[in-house]
Amino acid sequence: MSEVREIIQEYQNAREGNIALALALIVHVEGSSYRRPGARMLVNSAGKLTGAISGGCLEGDIQRKAQLVIHSQKPLVICYDTRDEEALEGENFNEILTQNPGCEGVITIVVLPVDFDDPQNPVEQLRKTIESRKSHLIGTCYPVKKTLDFSPFLHHTICLAGQEQPPSIFTSFKQKAAQVHLATEKVEAGISKVLKEGKHQSLKAYQDSSDWILFIEFVTPPVQIVIAGSGPDAVPLANISQHLGWEVILTDAKANQQSLKRFGGGCTWVRVSPEEILNNIEVDPRTCFVLLTHNYYYDKALLPLVLNTEAFYVGMIGPKTKKDRILNDLKGIGNPCSEDHLKKLYCPAGIDIGSESPQEIALSIIAEIIACLNAVNVPSLRNRTKPIHDSY
Q1: DSSP class of 275
Q2: Do the beta carbons of residue 288 and residue 225 sit within 8 Å?
Q3: pLDDT digit string (tens) for 246-269?
Q4: CA distance 220 to 139
Q5: CATH class for the domain made up of 224-383
Q6: Residue 124: helix, strand or coil by DSSP?
Q7: Which residues contact 127 (CB under 8 A, 6 or more apart)?
Q8: What does DSSP assign to residue 351?
Q9: Spans of all domains in the chain
Q10: Which end of the chain has fewer surrounding CB within 10 Å, N or C?
Q11: Residue-wise pLDDT tens digits, 222-232
Q12: CA dist., res. 22 & res. 41, Å (int)
């Protein structure tokens, strides 16, 4: 997500300076590839690159072809076959890449001109999607044959209201797809699969008269991480989160100016009591909480509140005995936490990698959050049966 933010920032700078741009987008991959469908790279008329579509082996050729797109203002479809010595276009692959990457895959990239006057240009669509904090579908239709006109269906964006699937999603996409004779039943099936799996999908939704492929992206807003506490261990957690392009909110009612200086810019501060935090933060399914207060009573007040939200992850530092004591206290006052809510509670927070320093602990917590986001099983500390530290 940091890369997407950099692309959006470069786009805004170029628009202010009236510097022409082209956007390269990976739309299909067969076999192995360093980057997957949905990866983007922005190229300006001076050749400056923002983002990446490979590990460095394709950028040079895309940089050159992007200049052709900027000059002609016509999109271009490029296919790289890294399984062979020669590219599919008939050019010597070693000459293009200066070295054989050995990725063993076929990568299809669409290079699009960016028209600042078009509110539906591909980067403007991306910017609106990210800033809205709502999931979107973005469809890009590209021709199989280079001789086809690229204009009938270039991009189409649909905003998703939470996890709903209103009929307008299918209707709107099918209407656009019909313009290039795509099989609408396959488009609807593809959209359903994207919504169910939350993953990009390339649809070879051909009809007899169609030579088009529809690439549908499921674009989600950046992660919003709320860090309760402003101690030294919160600093690396905030720094890594910002480096990932996440939105960072820090909350600590007692934070002083010296505490604020440690974090620099880029963070949003909410200096209120735990009971007031949720009144000042909009929580959505892309929100996570990490409790680093080192204050038992603060955590006890905040924990039941954040567990009862749409947040997908709630981490709290400290031993399991602390967690058990808080949960027992809450149960004793008639405020028990449900089993469903406890599934997203991770205490001790982080994965079991032997972390010791604040930086290592922050890294383990970030890794656990990413694993939860991607539904990947990792050795979480909450599942560890032995004490984290040896006794001396």
Answers
A1: G
A2: yes
A3: 999 999 877 766 767 788 778 888
A4: 14
A5: alpha beta
A6: helix
A7: 8, 11, 12
A8: B
A9: 1-114, 133-221, 224-383
A10: C
A11: 999 999 998 88
A12: 9
